[in-house]
Amino acid sequence: MKWIAAIVASLGIIAAGVLAYVFLVLAPNLPPLDAVTDYRPKIPLRIYTADNALIGEFGEEHREFVPIKEIPEKLKTALLSTEDARFYEHSGIDFIGAGRAVLADLRGGFHQGASTITMQVARNFFLSQEKTVNRKLKELLLTTRIEAALSKDQILELYMNQIYLGQRTHGFAGAARTYFNKSLNELSLAEAAMLVGIPKNPVRHNPVSNFQKAKQRQEVVLKLMLNRGVITEAQYDQALHERITVTGKHIYDTHADYVAEMVRQKIVDEYKEQAYTSGIKVYTTLLKADQEAAYEAVRNNVMAYDQRHGYRGPEAFIQLPADEDERDDAIDEVLRKHPSSDKLQAAVVTEVSSKVIKAELANGDTAVVDGDGLKFAENALQAKAKSSLKIVPGAVIRVIQDAKKRWSISQLPEVEGAYVALNAETGAYRALVGGFDFNRKKFNHVTSAWRQPGSSIKPFIYSAALEKGFSPATLINDVQLSATTGTLLRWDPRNDDGKYDGPISMRTALAQSKNVVSVRILKSIGVDTAHNWLPRFGFNKEKHPDDLTMALGTGAVTPVQLAAGYAVFANGGYQITPWLISKVVDAKGKVLSENKAPAIAQEDARVIDGRNAFVMHSLLSEVTRSGTGASASARLGRHDLAGKTGTTSDAVDGWFAGYAANVVAVAWMGYDDPKSLGGREFGATLALPIWIDSMRASLAGKAESQRSAPDGVSNAEGDWMYVEFLNGAGVKTLDMDEAASPPP
């Protein structure tokens, strides 16, 4: 009895010492509970279209905060069944559950563990993962404090939004988006159970890093739910056999990487590093349908151009080792250096013949290419093909799969393309595609590429000419300048097609993009007149030459600048300023800043007379009816389109700028290192198809618009002209006095 009494006394002294240590040493030095009572999760910067489609996310952690009342019941029950079945019954420390865990551990197999959800919250928010008595005592103290400070729902809400789930993802909402590209409400029971299985080892056992292990843990979660009666046998069987597709990356609702980067730079400039963690949401003026159509149009038409100009050969070659494991490692290594570009996937050829190619993809699948899928690269399959062109085992090629799951050989284009669409009345961006692939080239061609506009500058020269007495009916001599001057000229501009039609109207000249006529018009009104006219449309005067070559677009513009210039014709004569961000809100929805659409058609923004805009609209409409842009009206089936093609010297740049309804848009194609796009390529073959495919979505459901003639114009002499130039007061003919027969 004495020994027993001594032992009890000793234990009492030890217990008293532990309690004294806990309450006198540990307790006073515990961190405050602000992190959980005033929870401010690190939520990334997110960027959206005007119609709420996610286009970008920037931050160290993928996270979406979701209130507990909005978390689906099946996800909560899956979590509680697995991590803490008595969560709503215990006071933070579950002695019964701990006892059961010990027994389960002794029997072997998976169990839910002795840590409650509240204990995990304490550990995740305040403590390290070290396994020491000191840390465990702190955890228990913090657990009791958290339970006293917060309700059970608040604690569960913290856990489900804070827990790390692999792939830089925190919280179940972020994980649902990262692994399945779904919101929490869209998750199936099978997907919810797979997410719940991740916390045990989020780095190695998430569905991306080890799908097999994630599947095994999902089955355990489902079994626990079944045993606890929260799902039926039928639900268990269905979830167990459901095929799960893992995306493995954060997928956005539409492709707008260039826009997302524009916004990121602006927000970070204003909010510094806080931009990446405070849950700021930015709403742009983009429209999802317009943006997605523009993205597809640029991609498809750039690839179409590339296909027209032939296969250049594999991107790289490797030796395929005989050992299977070494072979897989070699393939993995080279494919990491050649990442996919959306649907254009890199693959390593493993087998090749004249009739079939087999190539291994980055995900381990094999692409089998045969039949029509080989046509593009048929020269590379010839026995006598050059070594740099020939497709052999170990070649790194690009393949693409169509809607019927058929593979074809393709390649990454070297050429670039861009597209921008604005609201012609307010200047709001509707779509912007800055290049073929943002991940390959982050240079934004829409806002930063200064390129020669070619013939797309001509309407602005014609606009200046209207103020000098010209009209669409004015006849201009379409013959080379040397043919009428009778002297050999140092610069004698030519028409692109080499054809000269003699006297033609200004309307026909613009529709057919006659170079010589444009130069004659500029020569007549004076270079200074036109040079001073350009800034009205937002062009940089110093970017354009003060000589006759200005008429052929030898200056420099950006696509967005050109779009803003054409908007003046589209909206009746008013200058616009392109703008992108409509609203910035914080994590709680409070508006931090907001940009309202400017009032339209304000006279202080007028830069050309309404009559000038009306007559120019008539001329630009002719281009899409009978001129170089006629395919636009034919393919879109509309009669209210207006615009102008543009092709620079040697076809280095291809353009189309135009508008309909209240949408003005510009498409461009060219090489970053300027070189000819080909002798048979023009703005109509390069850029116009991009414009048509994009505008089809922008104009869907929009009625055709019609313009009424403003006061001060007349159609009395066969075409529109200013009334003050009636009865011979304007320019009837130009350069006819020395007219000669058109040269052959």
UniProtKB/TrEMBL annotation:
SUPFAM superfamilies: beta-lactamase/transpeptidase-like, Lysozyme-like
Keyword Cell membrane: yes
Biochemical pathway: Cell wall biogenesis; peptidoglycan biosynthesis
Keyword Protease listed: yes
Highest taxon above the source species: Bacteria
Enzyme Commission number(s) from the entry: 2.4.99.28, 3.4.16.4
Subcellular location per the Swiss-Prot or TrEMBL entry: Cell inner membrane
Domain spans labelled Penicillin-binding protein OB-like: 311-415
Keywords carried by this UniProt record: Antibiotic resistance, Carboxypeptidase, Cell inner membrane, Cell membrane, Cell shape, Cell wall biogenesis/degradation, Glycosyltransferase, Hydrolase, Membrane, Multifunctional enzyme, Peptidoglycan synthesis, Protease, Signal-anchor, Transferase, Transmembrane, Transmembrane helix
Annotated Glycosyl transferase family domain residues: 53-225
Membrane topology: Single-pass type II membrane protein
Domain Penicillin-binding protein transpeptidase: 417-675
A family per Pfam: Transgly
Catalytic activity from the UniProt record: [GlcNAc-(1->4)-Mur2Ac(oyl-L-Ala-gamma-D-Glu-L-Lys-D-Ala-D-Ala)](n)-di-trans,octa-cis-undecaprenyl diphosphate + beta-D-GlcNAc-(1->4)-Mur2Ac(oyl-L-Ala-gamma-D-Glu-L-Lys-D-Ala-D-Ala)-di-trans,octa-cis-undecaprenyl diphosphate = [GlcNAc-(1->4)-Mur2Ac(oyl-L-Ala-gamma-D-Glu-L-Lys-D-Ala-D-Ala)](n+1)-di-trans,octa-cis-undecaprenyl diphosphate + di-trans,octa-cis-undecaprenyl diphosphate + H(+); Preferential cleavage: (Ac)2-L-Lys-D-Ala-|-D-Ala. Also transpeptidation of peptidyl-alanyl moieties that are N-acyl substituents of D-alanine
Similarity annotation: In the C-terminal section; belongs to the transpeptidase family. In the N-terminal section; belongs to the glycosyltransferase 51 family.
Protein name: Penicillin-binding protein 1A
